[in-house]
Amino acid sequence: MTVELLRGFARYAAETHELELSIAWIEEPLWADFYGYVRDSEGGAFGIGNVTITEARAEELDFSPPYLQNIAVLVTHEEVPELESMDAIGEAFAGLTALRYPGTLHEARLLQIRENHYPGLAFREIASNDELVDALSAGPTTFGYIDIYNYWRAREAGRPLRRHPVGDDAAETFGVILPHGSDWTPVMADYMNS
Q1: Three-state secondary structure call for residue 92
Q2: CB 65 within 8 A of CB 192
Q3: CA–CA dist 93, 115 (Å, integer)
Q4: pTM (two decimals)
Q5: Which of 71, 147, 152, 181 would staple 170 via disulfide (CB 3.0–4.6 Å)?
Q6: pLDDT over 90 at 88, yes or no
Q7: CA distance 78 to 159
């Protein structure tokens, strides 16, 4: 979907602004590096990939209008019984390690769980969604947050994961990110609003 979004933007720029754009794709597997690359770039840098629109981030870079409503889901191995309430997470997930993805809102959610419900929560740092899914699939020893479409893809691939709906957070929207003050920001906004 995000690839088609940028291809559509190139067509829009050609049709409405008579600009011929060529898109150079650069994959960055580490979220913090991806975010920093776009934030620190100049000119026609765009970032697409699970970036939640927040006020704090809007101080560092520009966002397009939202293109996707996300649900962050709390996930474990399928052998972990379903969590009935967030107040019970300290007892229900006792002995499980939280998989922390630095710099993300998923990490912030886990820190909030530790603060509000599970003071003794232990963390293990992970560097990608694939690493998180692998760790969760290995057995009932970890838990973490993941975007719902990544959860669905993992389940479709046969991964033994359980979603705990009491931990869902549907308050996120994703946007395309651009360097702060980019000349492309209003063009991207016009495209997204079209």
Answers
A1: helix
A2: yes
A3: 15
A4: 0.79
A5: 71
A6: yes
A7: 9
